[in-house]
Specification:
The protein has eleven helices and eleven strands. By secondary structure, the protein is an alpha/beta fold. The radius of gyration is 23 Å and the shape is elongated.
């Protein structure tokens, strides 16, 4: 048996640990993990800074292609909030019963453009049948994955609508997400890239060479929702409400997005 000389320090240590438990619990409740489309990085980083300034807490954002994030959530990733660059991946999670249906919102709109390196003088007249292969001059066309990533899907739809997809598809350099495609253009490894209009605003080393008409592709709608596992999470509810407020809206507009409720 332990002597009283030994049990005294042990009791003291236990009391200290018990006293710290509320602090540990509180710290955990102040943390929020958000999964968000890669194209939101610049804008959402600023929104998170504003949110933490107003509400405190610790918001961490994991950025990737919407499809990759959705698959991680299907496998049990512990995010509290998911922000997708299209409605389809949010639909998938809804069908799987992984989001709180009443929390789902249409948050933002975007557009897609042809981006070129900043020092390029390329200008593209985005008319049906335009010679995009000639404009590439032997270099690749950077795009996000055209089968899974929203920016790539929208881009493929637009190029198909304009009747040039068949000619250019063998020249496409597919990236894991739209920010990776943007980086190829910024470094000059691709002469042109299909990216979001907001990406062209965010990257100093690219410029817009041509704009796709909005009727060339499905509407670009960013959706947000709280995960079903986070029912009752007041921090997630607070963050989602902040995303829809004027402070966040001003930041999103500054980075080239359009608010969904501005239609």
């Amino acid at each position: 048996m332990l002597s009283s000389a030994h049990t005294g320090p042990i009791r003291l240590l236990l009391l200290l640990l018990l006293a710290l438990l509320p602090c540990v619990t509180q710290a955990a409740s102040d943390r929020l993990l958000v999964f968000a489309a890669a194209s939101l990085k610049n804008a959402l980083d600023d929104v998170v800074t504003a949110y933490e300034s107003h509400h405190g807490g610790d918001v961490k954002v994991s950025y990737a292609g919407s499809s990759k994030l959705a698959r991680q959530l299907q496998r049990g990733a512990p995010a509290a909030v998911y922000i997708s660059a299209n409605r389809e991946w949010m639909d998938v999670l809804a069908e799987d019963g992984l989001i709180i249906p009443d929390s789902r919102i249409a948050l933002l709109h975007n557009a897609i453009v042809l981006a070129a390196p900043a020092d390029s003088d390329t200008r593209i007249d985005m008319k049906p049948g335009f010679d995009i292969v000639d404009a590439l001059d032997g270099a690749p066309l950077a795009m996000a994955n055209t089968e899974a990533v929203p920016a790539g899907i929208y881009g493929r739809q637009a190029l198909q609508h304009l009747g040039v997809w068949q000619a250019v598809q063998s020249h496409v350099a597919q990236a894991a997400n739209v920010r990776a495609a943007l980086a190829l253009v910024a470094r000059g490894e691709a002469r042109l890239g299909v990216v979001y209009a907001s990406d062209a605003v965010a990257e100093d080393h690219v410029r817009t060479a041509g704009r796709f008409a909005t009727d060339n592709h499905d509407p670009i709608v960013y959706s947000a929702a709280i995960m079903k596992s986070e029912v009752g999470n007041s921090r997630a509810q607070s963050f989602l409400a902040f995303l829809q407020g004027e402070a966040a809206g001003e930041i999103f507009r500054r980075w080239g997005f359009k608010l969904a409720d501005a239609d």
